[in-house]
Amino acid sequence: MSPSPSRGTRRTVSGLATALLALAGPLAAPALPAAAAAGTGQVSTVTYTAAERAAALSYWTPARMKQVSRAVDLGPTGPLSKPWTGKAIPSIGRLFFVDSRGQDTWCTASAVTSGNRSVIMTAAHCARLGSSPVNTYGDIVFVPGYAKGKAPYGRYAVKATMTPRSWAEDTVNDIAAMVVATPAYGKRLTDAVGAQNIAFGRSAGERVTAFGYPATSPQRGEELLYCAGTSQHAPEGEQRVPCDLGGGASGGPWLAGFNSATGKGTVVSVNSHGEGNGGTPMYGPTLDKTARAVYDAAQRG
To answer: Under a CB-based contact definition with an 8 Å cutoff, are residues 226 and 211 in contact?
Structure first.
């Protein structure tokens, strides 16, 4: 993990580090992270030891998860963002972590089909700072089906993150895959909560439903929200969709062919960045060969 203040002095965010905004230049480089960092070819990998995973689970208590929600208010929820009131979707959840500044914060992630039944997809900026290879995040815990302080399917500590090397070095390709550890008391992730399908190389132009846990009011990260619309091509290998989900929704899935009766669809992108302050559109990366390499590295993990 990247160095951070001691647990007694960690700061809570006054504004989400993951506020769906392009992250600016790198921080001053700290010492190398305690977690093992490696990279081959297109993929940069950070792994977390069993002790670090246990510490993450101890850190993210129900009280702390509620505390970080109360600490952030990004203004009113936009008119396109609606609370999800249909069938529960346990494969989508909140992703809590401590960023490279030592701040408590969160993103959104989704469990996807994978060979090891333990992969979640999210945004790269939910795993590490862009253009700053040593600034990785720590104490990462996925809470599938999170709703109003409840963790109905338990909590899963992340044991490895995979991001494009291009993100770590140049802030390009905002996509990440993570491998979660199986709790001693439970099942592998997708055996417990199900999984969304995932597809690569899908062109824009299809209707998608984007999900997330934004820090906008009145929900402030405590409820799952969504937007729906038709995706369009955008510059620099991205797509866009009419959506005003705010910060905290980063990493949430864009589901094509979403079936509200089953809560299932196909992940074709994730929330990356938007205009902020209730503006539209939302941008997400096209899941290209680099994204496939990231996913493949995770499902082998």
So the answer is: yes
C-alpha closest to that of 101 among 123, 132, 60: 132
| Cβ atoms of 173 and 285 closer than 8 Å | yes
3-class DSSP assignment, residue 83: strand
- Kindly compute the dihedral angle of the four CA atoms of residues 233, 235, 241, 243, in this order, to the nearest 10 degrees: -170
Query: Cβ contacts of residue 232 below 8 Å, gap of 6+?
Result: 204, 205, 239, 240, 241, 281
Say if residues 244 and 227 touch (Cβ distance below 8 Å): yes
**CA 122 to CA 290: how far, in whole Å?**
14
Tell me what pLDDT residue 276 has. 58
| Terminal-to-terminal C-alpha distance of the chain | 18
| Rounded (10°) CA dihedral 266, 272, 276, 278 | 0
- Calculate what percentage of the chain has a pLDDT beyond 90: 81
DSSP notation for 133-191: TT-B-EEEEEEET-BTTB-TT--EEEEEEEEEHHHHHHS----EEEEEPPPTTS--HHH
User: Which residues, other chains included, contact 135 with Cβ-Cβ below 8 Å and sequence gap of 6+?
Assistant: 2, 26, 27, 29, 30, 100, 128, 129
Whether 48 contacts 157, CB under 8 Å: yes
Query: What six digits make up the tokens of 135?
Result: 């600034």
- Output the six-digit token pair for 88: 């529960």
| DSSP string covering 14-31 | SS-TTSSS---SPPPP-S
Q: What is the pLDDT of residues 15-26, one digit of tens each?
A: 343 334 322 222
